[in-house]
Amino acid sequence: MLRSDVERRLRERQADDGYLLPAYGDYCFGSVPGTIGSLVGVENGPQLPSDVFEGVRTDAATVVVVVVDGYGLNSWKRDRSTHPFLSTLTERGRVTPLTSVYPSETAAAMTTFETGQYPCEHGRVGWNVYEPETDRSFVALGGEVKAGGDGEITAPEFRAGVDYHYDRFDATGVDCHRVQPFPVATDGVTHHTYDGLGEFGSTLADAVERVEDPGYVYGYLNQIDHVSHTGGTDSAAFQRTLETVCDQLTDFVDTLDTATAEETLLLVTADHGHVNTDPGQCVDLDTFETVRQNRRRHRDGTPIRLAGSPRNVHLHLEDGTVAATRAALADLDAQVFTREEALERGLFGPHQTSDRFRRRCGDLVVTHRRQGVWFGDIEPEAFDQVGLHGGLSPAEMLVPFAAVRADRLRG
Fold first, then answer.
1. What per-residue confidence (pLDDT) applies to 411?
2. Which of 76, 89, 288, 315, by CA, is between 20 and 30 Å from 352?
C-alpha cells in the first residue's frame, strides 16, 4: 500500500514557496535510526509514527534495512508498475513517504542514518566541509583534503563528533552486519563487501543467514545515485540499473530459507531523491563579483569555496559582508539563508546545535529551486551532472519507506 495521503500532507504542511522543508517531527528519514533501534530493543533517538508498520508484523528475529541511495519517491511511484519487485512490495507491504533531512545529501543523511544524530549535531553539513579550526576543506565521508591545510592527504577531523550506533546495538546484544560495495571497518558491526551490483543479493542473504537473534543487517546500494548524476532519473541507464537492483532484491528474498524469510522484517528506503537539472543553466558563483570579493580566504590566500555542494552551497564570508553578499544573490531563483535563519528554522535538525556544526555552517546557505550553483573553475565537472541533490525541492526531499515481512514477497 502506497500512502498517498501522507505525501499530500507532507507537501501541504512542509511547503515553503515551492520548496519542501524536512518533517523532523514525524515522517522524516532522520527518525529511521530511532525506529530501527525500537525494533531491536535499543533506545536510538526519535522514531517514525507507529502507523508506518500498520498491518506489518514487526516481531522479527532479524531486521534488514536496504538503503537505495538516491531513489526518491517520485521514481518509486513512476516505476512500481513496471518492476515486479516494487509492485509486489507496494501491494503486500506498506510504503510511507518521508522527507529527507537537510541537506538531502548522502554525507549528511547517511551519517544521520548510522548515528541517530542530525546534521546540526554531527556537523557533516554537505559533501564538502570547511573546518575553520584547521583551515581545511575536506570530503565529509573519508576525509580527503581538497583545499587549505598544510599538505595533508586526509583530515582526521572528519571523524569528530560522529558516533556510530553499532556499539550501542552491540552492547545490548544485537548482532549487527553491514553490506556495502567498499571496505569500511567500524566497531560493533560485521562488515561484508560485495564486488559489483550483481553480488549484492547473495551477499545480503549470506549476512542474514549468519546473523544471530536478535539481528540487524544494513545493506547499501549506491548505483542508482551514480547513474542519476550522470544521466538523470529519466534515462534508459537509470531504468537498466533499477532493473538490476530489483533483480538483486528479488534474489535476496528468494535465497533465504523459508524459516529465515518468515522471521525477517525487510525495510527499503532512500536517503534522498534527485532533481533533474539543465547542466547548461548551472549558476557559476565565480561570475558574481561581490561573492568573489567577500569570500573568506584560506591561510595561503586562496578563497574558501569547497563547502557544501551544488545544491547546498555554504558561503564563508568576511565579517560585515553577509548582507551585501545576500543582496547580490537576490535575483537567483534560490533560497538564501543566513546561518542564524537556518538555525532558527531548525533547517539542519531539531536538536541543539554543536559548536562543530556552527563553525562549519556557512554565513550564507544557498539552495537553488531547480539548478546547480557552484564554482566553475575549481570543479567544472559539477556543471556536467544532470541529476543533483542536496536541496529542498520535493523531488530531492521525498523518499519512500517500505516495510514488509520477507516471506510476503515470495510467490
1. 77
2. 315
